[in-house]
Protein 1
Amino acid sequence: MVFAEDRHTDAMSGPSGRAILDALKVAEIRHIVALPDIVTSSGLLWPAACDPDFRLTRVCKEDEGVSICAAMSYGGPRAILMMQQTGLMDSLNAIRAIGVDYARPVVMLVGLQGKEPGLPAADSASYGVRIVPAVLDAMDLCYSWLEAPGHEAHIAAAIDAAYAEARPHVFLVGRAPEIP
Amino acid sequence: MSIARDAALRAFIPHVGPRDVVVAVYQTNFDWIALNPRPLNYVAVGAMGQALSHGLGLALAHPDRKIFVFDGDGSLLMNLGALVTTAGANVANLSHFVFVNRTYEVNGGHPIPNAKAVDFAGFAEAAGFPSVFRQSEEAVLIDTLPKMLATPGPRFCALEVHAGAPYPRDYSYIHGAAARQAFAEALRTT
């Protein structure tokens, strides 16, 4: 299920890192679990690491974060897992079992290293990028895109929906967010 | 020397309070829920190796509760980085006990890699756990458990065990929605 279209954009810049972090706060995300990803490092993870409104837990491997976020969803503060698409691929079994089979709202924000700005992922020259939406579709995972200014507007609603419907959601970051 | 697993688990029962959470895996999980059935047993971690990460999430979410993780040795080997993550997360309310039988017991009894030599407590020490223990005698475990649980957390203990009495393996219960719903409800009300 695609929450928002992987639409072609002529924007010359990526989404706003500040707007993304503000939207996470609106969605009551208070805990970030992360492995550094070069797409989101400067625009999101470093600013979040310095933001007193978030608690940051750095993990050694991405599937740890799936479990941490799932466990926190039992009565704890809302959490989000930040990683690169390589970590997403490495975590598919945990997402399958813990997020889908156990119906937990595991929310993930995934930088797509190598994605060409403005080009639909399905048309990417990079196999590692091209397969991501197809894999998420095959798993019936809900996902949406953060690739251009304005895309941040749907974040809070998507997170609220994931919690209300007890299911994972994946934000795919197709272009480095602008540094706040 | 080693401890029968069910005897080791019985030693924990007096120390698990009504608000505490227990995350257990595989045969240790089946033994524990037979010996001490309670809604705050977190019975399903979904994927092998994930018990400590679930425990960390629960410890972060509920700093006012004690979180016990009863892990397996083969399971922990799949996610050794979680020791480093947990040691760095400053969660004083988490206790990680690894039941070391040096086999994949529910998957045919095959040995873990390098079974005779691997030192799980050594992993925890190297990862930076502030309190690390090794236990292989039942009487010593019973005697020292209160002191262990009073040390700075997160704390780690490698328990050398062997299979005790057989307990049923009810996979449909641990993976079923009813156990998760009961757990969530108990968190709200306990």
Note: The longest strand of chain B covers residues 155-162.
Protein 2
Amino acid sequence: MRRAVYNLAIPNTILKPASRAIRRTPSLHRAGRLCCALVGLALAAHAADWSGPERQLASKIFAVTGTGVITLTVENRSSLGKRDSEVIQNGLRSALESAGVHFARPDRATSRAVTAEATAVKISLSENSTSYVWVAEIRQSAGEPIVVMVSSLRPQSAIAGRESVPLSLRKSPLWTQEDPILDVAVLEESTAPTRIAVLDAEKVAIYRLTAGKWQQEQALEIAHPRPWPRDLRGRLILARDHLLDVYLPGVVCRSSGGVPVTLSCHESDDPWPLIPAALSGGSFSVFPGPESNAVAVPAVGAFYAPMRNFFTGALTPGVGKLTTVSKFYSAAVLPRDKSLLWLIAATDGHVHMVDGTSDQAVTFAWGSDLASVKTPCGSGWQVLATSSEEADGDWVRAFEFPDRDPVAVSGAVDFSGGVITALWTEAKGDTAVAVVRNRETGSYDAFRLAVACSQ
Amino acid sequence: MRFGWRWLVVSSMMVAAMAAGAETRPQYGGAVHVAMRGAPASLDPVELDRADVVQAESDSFAQRSLTMLMFDTLVTAGENGRVQPGLAESWQASQGNQHWQLRIRSGVKFHDGTMLSAEVAAAALRAANPAWNVNAAGDSVVIELGGPEPELLEELALARNAIVKRNPESTPSGTGPFRVVDWQPGKKLTLAANEDCWRGRPFLDTIEIEMGKSFREQMTALELGKADLVEVAPEQTHLFSQNQFSQNRDAQAGHRLASSVPVELLALVFARDAASPDEKLLREALAWSVERGSIKSVLLQGAGQPSASLLPNWMSGYGFVFQAGADLARARQAREQVHTAPTWTIGYGDADPVDRLLAERIALNARDAGLSLQPSSAANADLRLVRIPLASADPWIALASVATLAGMPAGKTRGAVEELYAAELAVLAPQRVIPLFHLPVSYAAAGTLRNWGVRPDGSWTLADAWLEGKP
């Protein structure tokens, strides 16, 4: 499939003042031209700087009222807060005064005679789906009011950063982009990542942090002869003798080791590694168990259904005697006394606890994404699980298994109402990457999740 | 009362929260049963778009929904209002937005197995827009327009501009997530998953759509488990929150309701322009006589927003400037300026029982102002109570569609909000249309149907839906 190219921005709208009042007199035309110039200022202004649209609206009002006396009321019909509303109201008064408009004195404003003489100006701070819209209804007599208005593009809604609950699970942002992120791998880091690879449906993009800014080093296109399934999933697996491998439904890619990096993709049903190499191939014990009880964690691969969003259940080399389990979305491993416990989030909605000889389906209040992490905290191994409840947004929480039931060992980390679309253990095994779709902006945010012991 | 973007956000969040829970990954398989009032005779988007405003125009939301199951557009309107690539993967405008070039995505197959090409796409657009000069150039579609069309992309995102391959001997073929298996015009449509869909195979195996079902029949079907997704009349939505629509509380508990922002205009539309200044005064009297507030409370059960503007406030930002409250004194004043007033017939569609009640109530209001209105279900009424689906969340396109459906020309020179206001005033000036309400579109679904949604244009989408517990 051909890679999409960047689309041109939708051409800017042409902003022209067109008030019926403005069309009436040459002086109004001049005011209109002033307004036109101010629109640009308004659009460029930061949301907190309202001076542009204030002056613009004041100019339009002045074009109708002249230097006469007015009574002014301002009503907030928008999502602006009280403070912003008051700031704008004061700004409008100042702008009107600067333009030459006179206000009825407050102590006389309620006088019937003054009210009858004065022009009543009612300003409504409104909004539509893209802009703030400020509307002035100017009533000079008993007839229909003259309506003038200005608009100013709304800023992208700021997402309030909610503090996590007291926790031992911390999230730190890795990457954000419009296209769905399937996985992120940290290639180099010092105190923080300095080089990352981002996997999406069409490419692996490699970015480097240079002078405080992320700059793309390379974009490696992923060739795939067939359309991807919906709910596309993919993994980046760091390699020792080359940079990385990419696992996608029915496609496996292998990078080169040199610079510049190249990527070679081919159709394949090779199994995907369920846990990173750092967690497999060694012997691990569960703290505070005796070292002699250390168990080996073998590398296990699982076959992925090429046109679906789940693993088929076929494992290689298998878990103990079991080489087939239920179809599943994700899996996590926990070393236990002399044995390994695999937790499999199956497509039937249950978590299957597989210990090599038995496969027990249980129901936890978990979602379908699990990842295991090995940390210096607690028993040394935790399972990160997503939420199962349909709520305002997904969360991730760390669990341990002292026995057969999960015990939450961290608070829940939420993602400001976002939907978790991927959760994978990172290469070193002590952290995980969570990808979240932002419900408000539609963009995808990748976070690193780390368990902190001291909390 | 503040009503605007905040309401939109709340409404959208409600849709998202109720229809798009994501605690588990989507599951493949299963058949979904949908019921709808509309009974289209054709699946061709161009034919669907030719529905007369006088005839069941409210069905357009369902028609848009059907179109986007089977077909794709060159671009799509994203949730945030931004245009996204569809069958066109990139585009470029030049010559002051008069010349547009859209590069067609490669490797896309129609349901009949043939490949999408620029030629086919151009032919589809020509059929939908005879006034456009559309041609294929290599892997691109080139659209030459008579004047600047900065909103062309928003136009291309409309369902009526879906890319259709027309086959003389069979139903039109598309590239959408579902293909036609069985089509009984006006009665039933059976769709199956398009295994080769360029966006990926949908999760559902099949969708069966029963047509021509009244709101009551749809609700009964949902309650009995015979339908998974149904339409809900605006005046019925409150029953969901009050748990009253069903005798079977357990069955109802799992149902989910999702509503759009107000995207349907309920209005009175005169059959012709006012013939004299006196007639204009009478129309003005009628407009001032309608008690929208009490109609909302009693007949619409609190649904919708009383409005005297064509565009809803969330779309324009200035809708509140148009006074929607009744002013009987003003109505009588206008009426008294005319010596004699004829008896007008006010028509209503018989598809929705509440329309007759609305027409009767408006006739009562008019009588208080000294006007005589005779409710009638006949097609040739002097004025009709109509439901006009707004074509797009884009205010300029929406205004143009309302003007066209009401038989009036609409200027399309896009500009600042004040120009939009001026354009709306121009459409209202002949007093051919009296806006009454802006209504949301609501749907209810079984609890097992997940990740369905309501688009900003009021249509439902099942492209990414799935059924819980199917694997």
Note: Chain B is about 30% helix and 20% strand.
